[in-house]
Amino acid sequence: MKQWLKKKQIQKDAESKDWEKDLSKSKDYKKTSYINRKTNMRFSFTFIATLVDEKILRENALPFLLDQPFTAIDDVKKIIPVAEVEISEDPSDIEKKLFSGYVMLTVEKEPKRFAFILAQKNVTRTVTPPEVEFSVIGPKESFVEAIDQNLNMVRKRIPIKELVVDEIIVGDLSKSKVCVLYIDGIANPENVNTVKERIKNIDFDEILDSAYIAQLITDNQNSPFPQLLDTERPDRVAAVLAEGKVAVLVNGSPHAIIGPTTLVEFFSSFEDYLLNWYLASFFRLIRLFSVAFSVLVTPVYVAVLSYHYELIPKDLLTTLVTSRRVVPLPPILEALFLELTIELLREAGARLPTKVGQTIGIVGGIVIGTASVEAGLTSNVLLIIVALAALASFTTPIYRIGNTIRLLRFPFLLFAELWGLIGIVFCFCLLITHLLRLTSLERPFLAPLYPPRAIDFRDALIRLPFEKQALRPLFLRPEDPVRFNANKGNKKKDIDE
Question: Which end of the chain, N or C, is surrounded by fewer C-beta atoms within 10 Å?
Answer without folding.
Answer: C
